[in-house]
Amino acid sequence: MNILVSACLLNVPCRYDGLAKGNDQVQDLLKEYTLIPICPEQLGGLPTPRPASERRGDHVMTADKEDFTAAFQKGADEALKLAKLYNCRYAILKEKSPSCGKGQIYDGTFSGHLTTGDGVTAALLCANNIKVYGESKIDLLKQELKSLL
What we know:
The chain is an alpha/beta fold. Helix content is 30%, strand content 21%. The N and C termini lie close together (11 Å).
């Protein structure tokens, strides 16, 4: 089974700050599943490093009010294409991210506060029947995958 995964969780230094956020539980999934790494922000044409962005409504903005919405949408579209190409029914994405966050994202004020919502890519994947899990929910994903066996 193929699972779409935020590349930063696989130790790829692609986050906005040029760093990775490697996750041992994600790495362990490589023993049983094929993980398809993506960075929607890079797929959308943004450089690494890049200014920090937050989602506010339908827009993704930097603290300096630069609008990155089009790049985030393009990256989400490309991530969906890869999910379909590799027949991914599940995704593990970086929590709180304006592209990958599922359930909670930063509120767009750059104050560190979280709000209920999904990142651009997470929302598009969910709308296309791909189940999205954040890295703290890997145990739930494992339970679901075992129930399919």
